[in-house]
Amino acid sequence: MLKPQISVELPAKNAYNYPIYIGQNLLDEYTDWLSPLIPGKKIVIITDEVVCKLHARNFAAILEKSGYDVLLLSFAPGEESKSYDKFVYLLDEMLKHKCDRHSLCIAFGGGVVGDITGFVAACFMRGIKYIQIPTTALSMIDSSVGGKTAINSEHGKNLIGAFYQPVAVIMDTNLIDSLPKDQLINGLIEAIKIFLTSDSEYFNYTLTNLGDIVSKDYTKLTKVIQRAVELKADVVAKDEKEENLRMILNCGHTIGHAIEKLSEYKMAHGYAVALGILVEAKISFLSGLLNHEQYVLIEQILTKLDITAKHLKHFKASDIVAATLIDKKNKAGNIYMILLASIGKVSQSHDGKFATIIAPDIIFQALSTFGL
Ligand SMILES: NC(=O)c1ccc[n+]([C@@H]2O[C@H](COP(=O)([O-])OP(=O)(O)OC[C@H]3O[C@@H](n4cnc5c(N)ncnc54)[C@H](O)[C@@H]3O)[C@@H](O)[C@H]2O)c1
Questions:
Q1: Residue 258: pLDDT above 80?
Q2: CA distance linking residue 343 with residue 223, whole number of Å
Q3: How far apart are CA 182 and CA 158, in angstroms?
Q4: Among the CATH numbers 3.30.1490.20, 3.40.50.720, 1.20.1090.10, 3.20.20.60, which is that of 188-369?
Q5: DSSP-derived 3-state class of residue 122
Q6: Protein residue closest via CA to atom 11 of ligand 1
Q7: What is the pLDDT of residues 315-369, one digit of tens each?
Q8: Residue 170: CB partners within 8 Å, gap ≥ 6?
Q9: Same fold for the domain at 20-178 and the one at 188-369?
């Protein structure tokens, strides 16, 4: 056996934690959360053009007035901006404007802004601090927490990136005022997903109060966001690098990613995951795990959001199955899926794994029940 001459012993990594603030008017109270986090005076706010006009420009002006040196960078909204080009553009602008190791990045926007900004912060001078200010329901409930950062390549989505945690996440629910309803639903799906895997009580609460939540009843919406984030934070704390438990966050995503890809990313992530949840819940039922009554509740909550099997009919069963074969979770040519034992509980294999190997046949069988 080859023996190394020298071994590099790094000190055990310090435990790391960061605060998540959730509530109304948090941007107005920025002195409370910003001052302890910023090492210097330079702040880089990265946003997209829509969010810039609606919110980020005002916030940048407020910070400038109180003496911060603010660099405001924006790009066109949409998935195409999570690209090499924009990544290089952002880094170059930061170098041109003399940002340094003490500069603080703020990701001010939806998941696209959050993912690319996190990766920029991870790479700039080998890593600088960054804050997430999510502005969509999806980015509040899901993407701003957990430290997954990424850009896309022509070979696929999120293939280039790093695990890099923010120093804080500020969820000002007032930002949701300007968010269109379909974007709100797009994010709520991720809350429904995590309740399905981990909290039946909140699943029932969401089912009962869905109308008010979608109409932006702040008390109910905040309650749902807060619980979903609490559950995600707990999962991430236990398994940051997705070795096992974090896999449960991929519930609905095996089929969801396949549909998203087949739609050429025209279908929003949450809606594709919702269809994924529908099909995967049917597979859980057909596998003898989930009972029929609970399967019907899942169908019901999605129907209330107008997400039904009719949206699946745009796709061919063989294309869906073929697309699942290139999922990132796959190993040795097997398709992996998160199956539900019941609402609020993921099924585990005998060796404790949450991701289950699925035969293509059962996917075909489930899809055929929807007329595909
Ligand atoms: N890192 C993770 O863990 C993780 C998890 C899930 C998804 N994601 C990524 O998140 C991205 C999707 O995020 P998204 O759904 O937030 O999309 P997005 O960032 O593209 O935002 C959607 C649209 O909403 C607009 N918008 C944002 N905030 C607004 C506001 N307050 N008012 C009005 N309009 C607003 C944006 O300009 C954009 O046009 C994908 O790239 C996906 O891969 C990452």
A1: yes
A2: 19
A3: 23
A4: 1.20.1090.10
A5: helix
A6: 111
A7: 999 999 999 987 666 777 789 999 999 999 999 988 899 999 999 999 999 999 9
A8: 21, 26, 27, 33, 131, 132, 133
A9: no
Residue nearest to atom 4 of ligand 1 (CA): 143
Tell me, what DSSP letter sits at residue 155? T
User: Which pLDDT belongs to residue 92?
Assistant: 98
Question: In ligand 1, which atom is closest to the CA atom of 145?
Answer: 3
Q: Give CA torsion, residues 58, 60, 62, 63, to 10 deg.
A: 170
CATH fold for the domain made of 20-178: Rossmann fold (3.40.50)
Pairwise CA distance, residues 25 & 283, whole Å: 43
Contact 99, 42 (CB under 8 A): yes
Residues 6+ apart with CB under 8 A from 356: 336, 337, 338, 339, 347, 349
Task: List the Cα angle 76/81/85 in 5-degree steps.
Answer: 110
Handedness of CA 125, 126, 131, 132 (dihedral sign): positive
Tokens standing for residue 233: 């934070």
Give 7 Cα–ligand 1 centroid separation in angstroms. Answer: 43
Q: Report the pocket of ligand 1 as residue ranges, CB < 6 Å.
A: 48, 50-51, 54, 77-79, 82, 109-113, 115, 135-136, 138-139, 142-143, 146, 148, 157-158, 175, 178-179, 183, 186, 269
Query: What is the pTM (predicted TM-score) of this model?
Result: 0.92
Domains in the chain: boundaries: 20-178, 188-369
Helix (H, G, I), strand (E, B) or coil at 357: strand
Three-class DSSP category at 234: helix
SS3 52: helix
Number of the ligand 1 atom closest to the C-alpha atom of 180: 33
Query: For residue 303, what are the contacts with CB-CB under 8 A and spacing of at least 6?
Result: none
* Tens digit of each residue's pLDDT (9 = 90 or more) over 113-146: 999 999 999 999 999 999 999 999 999 999 989 8
How far apart (Å, rounded) are the C-alpha atoms in residues 241 and 268? 25
Mutate to test the pocket of ligand 1, among 50, 54, 113 (most ligand atoms within 8 A of CB): 50
Rounded to an integer, the average pLDDT of 65-75 is 96
- What the block records as the tokens of 89 is 């553009």
Which residues make beta-bridge pairs with 342?
345
